[in-house]
Structure formats: C-alpha cells, structure tokens
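User: Can you help me understand a structure? I only have the sequence.
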Amino acid sequence: MRRCNGKTKAGAPCRAPAGPDGFCFFHGHPDKAHALGQIGGRKNRSRLPEPPPAGSLTAADLRDILVDAIRDVRSKRMPPRVASALSQLCNSAHRLLQTADLENRLAKLEQQLAELASPTAVDSDPARSRVQEEPCGGTETQPDDADTPKSGDGAEGSKDGSNEGGKE
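Assistant: Let's start by predicting it. Here is the structure, written out as tokens:
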C-alpha cells in the first residue's frame, strides 16, 4: 500500500492510502473536504423536540414533555445533555405555575374582599349602616349632659324614679 504524497497542516507526511495519482482523496480534491465536512456536521446536529402548542403549559403538559424526553434519550434520538436542560426548564416552569396559580387566587380573594368592603355593600343593608352609626354602651356623654352641674353628693340619680340613692 502506497502512502499519500501530500503533507498535513503540521508539515508531516500524510498517512492516508494514495490513489492512482499519488494523493489521497482529500489531497486530490481539496474543495470536496469542506463540503463533505458540512454534510457530516448537519447529520450529527442534535434535534430539539417539537415545541409545545402556544399558550400556557399545565402540569400535565410538562409531564408529557418529560416522558417524551425520557423515551428519546433511551432510544438515542436526544442527547442526555439536552434532556437535562429540558428537565430543568420543566422544573422551573412547574414552580412558576404554582406561583402564578397562587397569585391568581390571591387576586380573586382581594377582589371579593374589596367588593364586600365597598360603600355600596354597606348602603344596601340599612339596618347594618344604622348600627354602625349609633354608639353603643351608653358611657359616652350626651350633648345635654354637658351643661348639667354635678353636686358630687350622689343625689343626681335620685329624681330618675329608680329609687336608688334616695327615700320615697
């Protein structure tokens, strides 16, 4: 077997078998090396899975994506590194789904609370608004009590008809 008469980029003699012209295929056709390298690179390129349909993802959608990725890794259609990245993205999306769900629930509760606390809700129940306006307990001074002089001897309540503090 004859060796190629060409030289490598490092300057060493080419070790490939020579053709009839004394050169290997790549030294005999230098323009073909680049084109064949591109074709091989396209074949080796990893293919990403089909993107999910537009819209928000549910937990079931994320589960299906991960199941498909596991099957693709086991059948060698997807590199494990791509599946690992996909798994991390699904994990992040799942956490965001939970947070978004809690935010939506909180917003609905806040809206319901605001509707209950709005003035229109109080005005629709006249009995409730009357109770809120009237003071309760009777310990507060009435406007006519402010001008009444107090003697301090406990005889103030003797004329109210309760028979407390005085004799009949």
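Now, to help you interpret it: The mean pLDDT is 76. DSSP finds six helices and no strands in the chain. Let me know which part you'd like to focus on.
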